[in-house]
Amino acid sequence: MGELLITVAPTGAETTKEACPQLPTTLAELVTAARESQEAGAAMVHVHIRDDAHRPTLEPARLAETVVALRAETDLVVQLSTGGSVHDPLAERLHVLEAAPDSCSLTMGTTNFGDDVFANPWPFIVDLYQLSRERQVVPEFELFDLGHVAALTRLLAQEGLPYGGRVHVDLVMGVPGGMPGTADALVAAVAALPAEVTSWSATGIGRSTLPVAFAALAKGGHLRVGMEDVLTLARGVPVERNSQLVERAVTLGRLAQREPMSPAAAHALLNTARHQGAA
Ligand code: KMH
Ligand code: ZN
User: Fold this and answer.
1) Ligand 1: distance of its center to the CA of 257 in Å?
2) Residues framing ligand 1 (Cβ under 6 A)
C-alpha cells in the first residue's frame, strides 16, 4: 500500500484558547507544534492562524509571515486553510492564496457545521480553484459529505486538473451536519471518488477519529490528525501536544505495515511548486 502521508492540523478555528490553553495559537506555538509533528512523522501541516487575542484571522501579512516561518523551521508541505472559520467572508478566503503556500484546502460544498453553516457556493469553489492554478498552489479537496464527492467530479470535468496535475482529497468526517465518521460512510465516499483522484486521506472529528483512521488504513488511504479535529486521546485524557496524535498515527500506520512518508516524498506526491523547483 506504500508509505503513509500524515497531515497534522494543529489548531483549527473552532476551539478557543480559554477552553484549551495547550492549543497552538501563537506563531511560536504553531511552529513548535509543526516541528514536533515533523519529528514524530508528519509530512504536511494544515494551518489556521489566530490573532493576538487568539481569535481566528485571515490577516494577509500574518498568513504570509506564517508560511515563511513554517518553511524556515520545517520541511513540511505548508497548507493554508481557505475554509477559515464559519464567519469569514468569501472574499477574504480568496486572499489566502496571496501568502503563497504550497497547498490550500478547498471545500467542495456548503455544509451545516454544528449550529452554523460553512458556506462554499459553487461560483466561489470555481473562483478559488482557478486562482489556485494561477498561483501555483496545489489544492487539497476537503469533502465533508457524499455530495461533495459529486461536486469534485463536476469540478474536474468542467475545469480540468489542478496545478501540479495531482488530485489529493481529504475526507473530513463526523462534523455535525456532514457525513458520519463511520467505516460505512468512508467506504461509500471512497467508492465514489472520481478516477482522477491520485491520493486521499481521512480524518474523523472527535470520537470518530479512531474508527475513521482504522477504516482509512484498511482502504489504503492516508491520515490527517491534530487538535483541529480531536482534543482527547481517550475519554478524559486531553491531548497535550499535537505530536502525540502524530505518534499514534505512526503506530497505527506501522501496524498496517506503512512507514510514515517524509516531507520530501509528500512534496513529490502532491507535485508542489517547491518540488518542481518553481517556488
Ligand atoms: N473551520 C471550518 C469552518 C478548511 O480548513 O478548509 C472549515 C475548515 C475547512 O476547517
Ligand atoms: Zn481546517
Assistant:
1) 31
2) 12-14, 81-83, 85-86, 105, 107, 113, 118, 142
Q: Report yes or no on 274 lying in a domain.
A: yes
Q: Is 227 left (phi over 0), alpha (psi -120 to 50) or beta?
A: alpha
**pTM of the entire predicted model:** 0.98
Q: Domain for residue 16, yes or no? A: yes
Angle at 7 between CA 89 and CA 254, to 5 degrees: 160
Which pLDDT tens digit goes with each residue over 33-75?
999 999 999 999 999 999 999 999 999 999 999 999 999 999 9
Residue nearest to atom 10 of ligand 1 (CA): 83
Q: What CATH number should be reported for the domain holding residue 170? A: 3.20.20.70
Domain range spanning residue 164? 6-278
Number of domains in the chain: 1
Which atom, in ligand 1's list, is nearest to the CA of 81? 5
Instruction: Give the number of the atom of ligand 1 that is nearest the alpha carbon of residue 113.
Output: 3
Q: What is the pLDDT of residues 163-192, one digit of tens each?
A: 999 999 999 999 999 999 999 999 999 999
Q: Residue with the nearest Cα to atom 7 of ligand 1?
A: 83
**Would 1 be classed as within a structural domain?**
no
Task: Provide the b/e sequence for 45-76 (b: ≥16 CB within 10 Å).
Answer: bbbbbbeeebebbbeeeebeebbebbbeebbb
